[in-house]
From TrEMBL:
This is Ankyrin repeat and fibronectin type III domain containing 1a. InterPro entries: ANKFN1 (IPR039269). One of its GO terms (biological process) is regulation of establishment of bipolar cell polarity. Signal peptide: none annotated. It comes from the Eukaryota. One of its GO terms (cellular component) is spindle. Transmembrane segments: none annotated.
């Protein structure tokens, strides 16, 4: 995927090279000049209150502080004053921009060339325009990661949120850093606790959102893992079950440190996956005997998978004796080069 993005960027470098130079860190003199310019010109372009529509907010945080405007507001720009039934599909498309913020200008130009009366294209063009405006006002391409779900309220507002964890309290524009608790305490809300505005919901849940972002950056150490994929689908989206402590991963359990699967182990998994239903029942009936008597033809991976599978079932809170009453009839084993589906044996 990264190589594909690099090829696309290389092909269209001439679209973004000029824009990139504008957003690079300038000298001290240029920085002061730009700060003065933003002080008088850009602050009034940020949205202060939400009126029915779609908005884009940028949450830049460092430890327990947020980057806010000179008026102590989270940087927010308007996307559109209305939205249709395809909002969720457009939002899921928008989340992909997290991997290519520097190409927003080129995407806007490309979509302008192919612009049609399609409401979907028009909505996405407005999202790109809002992202470009926010980049220009903040003075940086990188807006961070798009939060996995938009914030909606009962007043007809939808707030799209980008999150970026800063290494230091550096301000790209004429904003300032403020502690989250102070920002929350001095916020004067016009809504009621029963029907809060989307901006109030953002401020109330800002710690949870930033914590989710930090947990999403964790990576698994090298090794072999057993994963569990559980889907929940609706008309406009598909959700997957993930652990709370690592929300960027599927539910999983570690099998062993060695990530490689030998040819003998892989052949055994393939034979296991091809067993007919009747043979499966026979093997399950002989399960106790297999547990007590070590089969010389059974690889060590068999017992490692048993241990990992029991840990995985405990993680998803599914009792061992109820496994065959649920949809956990197949477990997908991933390696770096191959994928195979097989029936678990306990």
């Amino acid at each position: 995927m990264e190589r594909l993005l690099q090829q696309v960027r290389a092909t269209h470098t001439h679209y973004s090279c000029g824009d990139t130079s504008k957003l690079q860190n300038p000298s001290r003199k240029q920085s002061v000049s730009r700060s003065l310019k933003h002080l008088f010109n850009s602050s009034n372009k940020f949205v202060k209150t939400l009126k029915r529509g779609v908005y884009l907010a940028a949450v830049f945080y460092h430890k327990d502080s947020l980057l806010v405007t000179t008026e102590d507001q989270i940087p927010i720009v308007e996307v559109d004053d209305c939205y249709g039934s395809s909002l969720m599909q457009d939002f899921l498309w928008f989340t992909k921009l997290s991997c290519m913020w520097e190409d927003v200008r080129w995407l806007r130009q490309s979509m302008s060339v192919s612009m049609s009366s399609s409401s979907t294209l028009q909505a996405r063009q407005k999202m790109l325009a809002a992202a470009g405006q926010l980049q220009s006002l903040l003075g940086t391409h990188n807006l961070g990661r798009v939060h996995y779900e938009p914030i909606k309220d009962r007043h007809g507002n939808v707030l799209l949120v980008t999150i970026r964890d800063m290494e230091s309290q550096y301000s790209f524009f004429s904003g300032k850093w403020m502690q989250v608790s102070k920002l929350q305490s001095q916020r004067k809300s016009l809504s009621t606790p029963e029907e809060p505005y989307a901006l109030d919901i953002l401020l109330i849940t800002i710690q949870d959102i930033s914590a989710y972002q930090r947990r999403s950056q964790h990576r698994l150490t090298s090794g072999l893992y057993l994963g569990y994929l559980k889907l929940s689908s609706s008309v406009d989206q598909i959700r997957v079950l993930v652990p709370q402590r690592i929300p960027n991963m599927l539910c999983h359990a570690r099998v062993r440190d060695n990530a490689n699967v030998s040819r003998e182990e892989w052949d055994w998994l393939q034979r296991l996956s091809n067993i007919e239903d009747g043979e499966k029942e026979r093997m399950e009936g002989e399960r106790e005997g297999v547990d007590q008597t070590t089969d010389s033809n059974t690889p060590l991976l068999y017992y490692e998978l048993q241990t990992a599978l029991k840990a995985l079932l405990k993680l998803i809170n599914l009792p061992l004796h109820q496994v065959h009453k649920h949809t956990l009839t197949h477990v997908r084993l991933h390696t770096q080069t191959q994928t195979q589906t097989h029936t678990p044996i306990f």
